[in-house]
Amino acid sequence: MDKDTGIILEGGAMRSIFTAGVMDFFLDKNIVMPNVLAVSAGAYAGMNYVSGQKGRIITSVVEPMAHEKMLGPGVFMKTGEFFNMDALFDRIPKVDSPFDFEAFKASGKRFITSAINCLTGELHYYDKFDSLDEFLHVIRVANSLPLLAKMGYIDDIPMMDGGMADAIPIRRAIEEGWKKIVVVFTREASYRKSAHGDIYNSKVVKRMYKKFPGLLKAIDKRPATYNSSIEMLNEMEKRGEAFVIRPTKVKLTNNESNPEVLKEYYREGYADAEARYDELMEYLNR
């Protein structure tokens, strides 16, 4: 595959199980994406694709949810975070279901994720990782959402989930010179963000993060940034300049915790990618 080909993986907490299904289909068909730009929870699906660990999202996250709380108010009361971040980004990838960091490094693929500087609002992209500990720390920060997680720090800079600034970094891919762009969404085609009813568009958030003006500015712009990226991609898709995979059947909340529902969403991701296989190959090979 041409080095100027890449895939963008949208986040969405547990909705990224759909993305994991898509990426496992890619592994089965040996579809090689030289660049993997994974936002927020999309990183958990993307990292397993790069390391070649098909099905790891099921064994490492979904199946353990049958006997261990991975998210919810109880986890928040115990840890101060809505998701069990210590389990997801420390114990599980190191002990319970080891992430193959050596295979990840040797894959030849470039894995990229993002985090926002909460002071300045600058978006930082990370694509070089010297150790498993460094990698898991960056991924954890890149998944740290306001209200739901503790503030993360990289090089002593307060940082959080890069999706707060740009959840669908299509412009970044274009700036890098990608010629073939595949995008995996975790929401249906009609979805648009609205400031009304947004958990982050509140006085509580503004008070909690008043020392982090860059984050607050990104939150204010978040709906407009997201929606403009959708419209841009829709036009690119019509012109044959991008290939988009979206859920076609099951709708999932980002805090779903039922393992069977999550497995169904994973299977939908696999099936939706399989249904588009011929179209995808035509796009990538022309």
Can you tell me about this structure?
Strand 1 (5-9), helix 1 (16-28) and strand 2 form a beta-alpha-beta unit. The protein is an alpha/beta fold and 286 residues long. Helix 1 runs parallel beside helix 2 (42-51) and helix 5 packs antiparallel against helix 7 (132-142). The chain has 12 helices and 8 strands. Strands 1, 2, 3, 4, 5, 6, 7 and 8 form an 8-stranded mixed β-sheet that branches. It is globular, with a radius of gyration of 18 Å. Helix content is 45%, strand content 13%. The protein has helices at residues 16-28, 42-51, 56-62, 73-79, 85-96, 101-106, 132-142, 170-175, 203-208, 213-238, 259-275, 277-285, and strands at residues 5-9, 35-38, 110-117, 123-126, 152-154, 157-161, 180-184, 243-245.
Helix and strand succession? EHEHHHHHEEHEEHEHHEHH
- Name the helicity range: 40-55%
Number of strands: 8
For the sheet with most strands, the description reads: 8 strands, mixed
The proportion of residues in beta strands is 5-15%
Q: How far is the N terminus from the C terminus?
A: 12 Å
Average residue-wise pLDDT: 93
Total count of helical runs of at least 4 residues: 12
User: In terms of per-residue confidence, which ranges show pLDDT below 50 for 5 or more consecutive residues?
Assistant: none
**Outline type:** globular
Secondary-structure class: alpha/beta
**What's the alpha carbon Rg, rounded to whole Å?**
18 Å
